[in-house]
Design goal:
six-stranded parallel sheet, Undecaprenyl pyrophosphate synthetase, alpha/beta, about 40% helix, about 230 residues
C-alpha cells in the first residue's frame, strides 16, 4: 500500500474509449475492445496491491444493444474468452467475482461461464470485482421498486431498506468513480449508489489507463475533501 495515498474502499470504472483507441491506430474497433479487456488484469492487480477492496467495471450497458450485431458478438466472445482465461488467475490472486445486471439476454454459453466463475471464486476475499453486464441504473431502480411492490411484508421503505433490493445490496457505495476517454457524464451507471461519490474524468482512453494513470487518479482522490453535506475540519 502506498502510504502517501488515501485509499478508497470502492472504486467504480466507466471504461470508455476502446473504439477511439483503435481508430487512432487504424485498427478495427474489436481490437480496441480486446486491448481494453486485457487491461483489466493490471488494474485489478494494482487495486488489490494498494488496498482497494471493491472495484466495479461498467462492461456492457443496456444501451450497448444498439451497436452493430458484429460488434455485440465480438464483445460477447471477448467476455467469454476473458472469463475462461482469467478465472484461474482470480483463484490464485484471491479475487471474488460478482455480476450486476440482467444476464438473461446473453448467450447461454456465456451465462454458464459467468455462473461458473462466480461459483468458483465465491470463497475469495482479497478483492471483490464487480462487472456490470446488461446494466442500467434506471432499470435497477425500477426493478427494485417492482420487487418491493411484490413484497407484502413491506409497509415502509427507507434508503437503507431500499438498498436491499438493488444488485449492489451487499456492496458498499463507490467512494470514487473514474471515467476514461474525456466524456463527462454518468451514462446511466450506478445512479442510486453514486450520490456522494467523488468523480474523476480523464482524457486517457481505457486501454491506456495504466497503473501510473490509476495512481494519478488516486492522488487526486487523496486531495479531495469528502464532507457528505457537512463542513470541512479546516
Amino acid at each position: 500500500m502506498d502510504e502517501q495515498l488515501k485509499i478508497p474502499i470502492h472504486v467504480a470504472f466507466i471504461m470508455d474509449g476502446n473504439g477511439r483507441w483503435a481508430k487512432k491506430r487504424f485498427l478495427p474497433r474489436t481490437m480496441g475492445h480486446k486491448a481494453g479487456t486485457e487491461n483489466l488484469r493490471s488494474i485489478i492487480t494494482y487495486a488489490k496491491n494498494v488496498g482497494i477492496k471493491h472495484v466495479t467495471f461498467y462492461a456492457f450497458s443496456t444501451e450497448n444493444w444498439k451497436r452493430s450485431k458484429d460488434e455485440i458478438q465480438a464483445l460477447m466472445n471477448l467476455l467469454l474468452a476473458y472469463l475462461r482465461k482469467e478465472t484461474k488467475t482470480f483463484l490464485k490472486e484471491g479475487v471474488k467475482l460478482n455480476i450486476i445486471g440482467d444476464m438473461s439476454s446473453f448467450p447461454e454459453e456465456l451465462q454458464k461461464e459467468v455462473a461458473n466463475s462466480v461459483e468458483a471464486t465465491k470463497g475469495n476475499d482479497k478483492i471483490y470485482v464487480n462487472i456490470a453486464l446488461n446494466y442500467s441504473g434506471r432499470s435497477e431502480i425500477v426493478r427494485g421498486i417492482n420487487e418491493i411492490l411484490l413484497d407484502d411484508n413491506v409497509k415502509c421503505v427507507t434508503e437503507d431498506s431500499f438498498n436491499n433490493y438493488l444488485y449492489t445490496k451487499d456492496i458498499p457505495d463507490p467512494d470514487f468513480l473514474i471515467r476514461t476517454s474525456g466524456e463527462l457524464r454518468l451514462s446511466n451507471f450506478l445512479l442510486w449508489q453514486l450520490a456522494y461519490t467523488e468523480l474523476y474524468f480523464t482524457d486517457v482512453f481505457w486501454p491506456d489507463f495504466n497503473e501510473a494513470e490509476f495512481k494519478k487518479a488516486l492522488v487526486e482522490y487523496t486531495n479531495r475533501d469528502r464532507r457528505y453535506g457537512g463542513l470541512s475540519d479546516d
